[in-house]
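Query protein
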Amino acid sequence: MQQKFSSFKHVSSTLFLFFFFACALVPQEKVYNLNEIVVTAGRTTSKLSETTRNIQIIKPEDIAAAPVNSVQDLLQYVTGVDIKQRGVEGVQADVSIRGGTFEQTLIMIDGIKVSDPQTAHHNLNLPLSLDQIERIEIVKGDGSSSFGPNAFGGVINIITKKENGKSAAVQITGGEHGFYDAELSGSFGFSSMNNHFSFSKIKSDGYRHNTNFDEVNASYRSSILFDGQFVNFSFGYDDKEFGANSFYSDKYPDQWEHTRTKLASAVGEFNVAKLVVTPKFFWRRNDDEYFLNYLNPSFYRNVHQTNVYGAEVQAAFKTEIGTTAFGVEYKRDVIASSNLGDHSREQKGIFAEQKIGYKIFNAAMGFFAYNYANIGWKFWPGVSFGYNLFPAARIYASYGKAFRLPSFTELYYNYFVTPKNGTQKGNSNLQYEESSNYEVGMHFVEEKFSASFSLFKRNGNNSIDWGKAATDSVWHSYNIVNVITSGFEGNTELNTADISLQMIKKITIGYTYLNVVASLNRENFQSRYVLDHLRHQLVVGISNELFFNIIQTWMLRYENRITGDKNFLVDIQMKKSFANFNVFLKATNLFNKSYKDFTGVFLPGRWLFAGIKASVQY
């Protein structure tokens, strides 16, 4: 332990000296215009200033300034988004939006659906590094009318970088607990073909017993452009081995897990007559090996393999009144598991969307008709409106139906250790969840100040949860009769970066309040997930400039769960950028608070990191 600490001191001291040596140079600041952002909140793109939904963007400068090393940690700073972690630094995290469960959020990468059919515990097994991300779009509220199943509480769409030209970057980060992160990325091209690649190796000895992890992440993307049309190919791979101390039961501190995720996709865009045709093909495979006690592997071991095959074809055309899009989707989920058994299911969908824009008024309406297993065809509509009160202020309203299919774990899991330690059993008779969603809100955007406010309500039926009677040792998956979620959300941003002699460059404040009322169909029912949500969430970000043009970012989070757990956490980063490289210091949980997101799974106290990134374009 002393040797590890001395090693870290040596590395961090060297980087610290280099950090301040670099402060003699002045960085170039980047100007970002909010109104120019193009988003994909629906089936076709639109300007952020013309959207009719609640959508929040994590912009490139937000990613660069955040004191984080992973996408999972980055999402903690978005109001309305609840990240519950078992393992740190992207090892394992559950994400939910507006009081939904972690199974009710659809995850996409460049519009490709990557949610896991075995369990949403694997939804954030992302085969790409943080450095490869251009921005992240979060659509809050239902998304089933545009994207189909599982877009129940919202959609998180990760948009990757697609810059042209030749570049190369190397980043090295070191930290306490034997942490290191080495990343190599770059791009190159010739003629009409652009290529991007990344490779990273992340490792830590862990912050307490059996929390060590080892991750390898690699990705490759290629774009072929011709006559205003393109074809994109991508492949990503993520391999994680980690100690899972008390992850699924606090009675077993020596759990261990190994996941491997592969994602391949091909996306094109072609002009056919007056149509823009966009075909998508993708394959995602996730392998999961789990030991309840790695010191005694034969005691309890699960091995799961899921394969998801998908295809989609969309056509769109523009007229004087707006944009029309329509298409079809097919997806097949296959699982081979030592515990869940071997199963497969097919999903077929037809969708259409019409966007209308006239001067200061915009509207979007659409539907997704879906066929799954033996439920037949179901229809999921959505409609939204936006109106500019004046150039800087916009009001909007939306209504939509949403649904979610049960995961393979909820359907078939069968976990038994001993009667004393309980069991967990799936329910093959589960029905799909569905909800009706309502929202009204307002956006106000000016050059240096923006604000938004919204009121929302979700009326959910047949919501799926794990539960049991107070006297029972068996957790079952059930359809709960009704869950009503209501709340409000507000966000503000003040940007003074272009005002000279201002110490504070940027301030963001976001707050979400949630109220969830569940009507249970069983007396003395204990809920595992549905009734464990944030009631109050406050996120404050402050960016200020120190001497030598050092940019310092503070991120403060206050979380108050309905269970009574309260956390106040502070993260910080100091960064100096110039020419072809930057150096940084980070501290998470600065005040060393003891906290947890799950019973028995305590998360780290203060954790210090230091690093350097060198990049070149040629």
About this structure: The helical segments are 2-21, 60-65, 71-74, 144-147, 408-412. The first strand starts at residue 38 and ends at 39.
